[in-house]
């Protein structure tokens, strides 16, 4: 249940390079650079609901069960099937263009997205 709660971005590293690699327009990158994204997670055992609120007033909610294939959606609206795994307390999932992990470290939510050699690391505090 460590992931449950509401989290707000404290800092992020590699944001511009990662967004450019995914083809996100420059004006959207600019708006999101200093935005304090809010992530809300509910967890009931292996069942999760993961909602992220973005700077353009967009909101994406993905519901999943650990180790079971589910329907997911990217912020761009692309729907895909994926299986979220949990290994040593870390959530791990392959999105269409990158691999994403989430973990609780030092009381913070740390999310890492990797696309080739480009890495976006976002750290959020509980609010």
From TrEMBL:
A Pfam family per the record: Lipocalin_7
InterPro entries on file: Calycin, Fatty_acid-bd, ILBP
Presence of keyword Aminoacyl-tRNA synthetase: no
Keywords for this protein: Cytoplasm, Lipid-binding, Transport
Gene3D superfamilies: 2.40.128.20
Any one cellular-component term (Gene Ontology): cytoplasm
Gene Ontology molecular function, alphabetical: bile acid binding; lipid binding
Domain of life from the UniProt record: Eukaryota
Subcellular location: Cytoplasm
Keyword Cytoplasm among UniProt keywords: yes
Main location: cytoplasm
Annotated family: Belongs to the calycin superfamily. Fatty-acid binding protein (FABP) family.
Name of this chain's protein: Fatty acid-binding protein, liver-type
Organism: Cottoperca gobio
């Amino acid at each position: 249940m460590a992931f449950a709660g509401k989290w707000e971005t404290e800092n992020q590293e590699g944001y511009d390079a990662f967004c450019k690699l995914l083809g996100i327009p420059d004006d959207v990158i600019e708006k999101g650079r200093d935005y304090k994204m809010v992530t809300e997670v509910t967890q009931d055992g292996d069942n999760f609901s993961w909602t992220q609120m973005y700077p353009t007033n967009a909101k994406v909610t993905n519901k999943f069960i650990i180790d079971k294939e589910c329907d997911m959606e990217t912020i761009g609206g692309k729907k895909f099937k994926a299986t979220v795994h949990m290994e040593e307390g870390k959530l791990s999932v392959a999105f269409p263009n990158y691999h994403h992990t989430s973990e609780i470290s030092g009381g913070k939510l740390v999310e890492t997205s990797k696309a080739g050699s480009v890495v976006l690391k976002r750290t959020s505090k509980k609010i």
